[in-house]
Amino acid sequence: xxxxxxxxxxxxxxxxxxxxxxxxxxxxxxxxxxxxxxxxxxxxxxxxxxxxxxxxxxxxxxxxxxxxxxxxxxxxxxxxxxxxxxxxxxxxxxxxxxxxxxxxxxxxxxxxxxxxxxxxxxxxxxxxxxxxxxxxxxxxxxxxxxxxxxxxxxxxxxxxxxxxxxxxxxxxxxxxxxxxxxxxxxxxxxxxxxxxxxxxxxxxxxxxxxxxxxxxxxxxxxxxxxxxxxxxxxxxxxxxxxxxxxxxxxxxxxxxxxxxxxxxxxxxxxxxxxxxxxxxxxxxxxxxxxxxxxxxxxxxxxxxxxxxxxxxxxxxxxxxxxxxxxxxxxxxxxxxxxxxxxxxxxxxxxxxxxxxxxxxxxxxxxxxxxxxxxxxxxxxxxxxxxxxxxxxxxxxxxxxxxxxxxxxxxxxxxxxxxxxxxxxxxxxxxxxxxxxxxxxxxxxxxxxxxxxxxxxxxxxxxxxxxxxxxxxxxxxxxxxxxxxxxxxxxxxxxxxxxxxxxxxxxxxxxxxxxxxxxx
Length: 519
Known about the structure:
Elements lengths: L2 H9 L5 E4 L3 H8 L7 E2 L25 E16 L8 E6 L6 E2 L4 E5 L1 H87 L2 H5 L2 H22 L3 H5 L4 H4 L17 H117 L3 E3 L4 E6 L6 E2 L3 E19 H4 L7 E6 L4 E9 L12 E8 L13 E6 L3 H19 L1
Antiparallel strand pairs: 1-3, 2-3, 3-10, 3-14, 4-6, 4-9, 5-8, 6-7, 8-10, 10-13, 11-12, 11-14, 12-13
């Protein structure tokens, strides 16, 4: 396939056609056409204020329809260089086309310098490589983001499920800390009261039986001394010569130690035995007294220690209660936050996933745009030449040799006989019913019907009248059959607001009427 034929195929897919309304001055100056007047056939919803032309006889005109007449115009095409984001200056070496010349699809319009074309190609290839790398990296990050989002969602849900249990455990732990502090304080206060009783009311003396041992000793001492006096036996006889040990303890120290006449040996043995018991009583008394004094000393020391420790225990209780209140509020906040996080987990997950998808889609779009941009460059000027994409007559060439060809630049403007438009006037009461992109039905004076689409609505009124304000509406006509096609400067009637079914029914009636006329 020849390069020119390839260009023709590619140009058929290009998005560089921009249809414009023929300006009055341009039509008069360049095409020599006459100015066509238009007539509004429908100004409002009242059917009695207009009459349909003969070629639309039989149309059931509804309140939603608007009809107006106008004259067809040859389409004007702007041929543009649509490669985007190109910083390299493309230098025009030569321009082949001039105003007034006829061009066909694939004709060379201009030539670019080889160096600028090659430099531009390298720039676009680098941009494509960068975009592809960013997209591949983004795809990896996208998968990682999905994994992280899922983990975060599951973790939040699990945390929410465990939040009540954690909260209850925290409250129990805080309450336990307060209870322990209060128990330690109470134990200390109880010990202080106990030690005070030991020190102040002689409880230890009763506990160690000091008075009991003292009474036994006193009773046995009295019995011994009474018998010694009765039997006339001296201390030396009873003790074997020494009464010091008994006399040294308790009240026994004042017992007389004088020796008397020896009694019989039986009485001495009896008193000696009683003396041995008295010695044991003294030993028990002294031991109890020692324990009592030691216990009182220890109790006094412990009492002093506890009294010194008491303020810190009281402070510990206060701090435990304060910490309970603070930590309880924090635990409650954590619990509510966890619950809220669990409730939002799915929504947050979806938001994160959608953002990740959006970011990846943006990178993909950038990559695809870079790829399409390079393909468009290769298809439009890759071999160094810019070609015509349609047949027509050049009205004006917008570029010159030694100039730069920039993105979105208009290369030339030419008339395109395959594209016809009609501009009609619509009353202000009806203009709000129309939108660019709406379909329309176009009826020629010869009786042929065509579909069309609104391509422009002039927001500025073209009327100077204050009572009758009109707006210009441009419709592009779809002409499919070249043998029965419209031509420029033909009068047509445009009907807006018709459904596809209504258009089909009208065309069928007109076709039947045309057949009957011929017969």
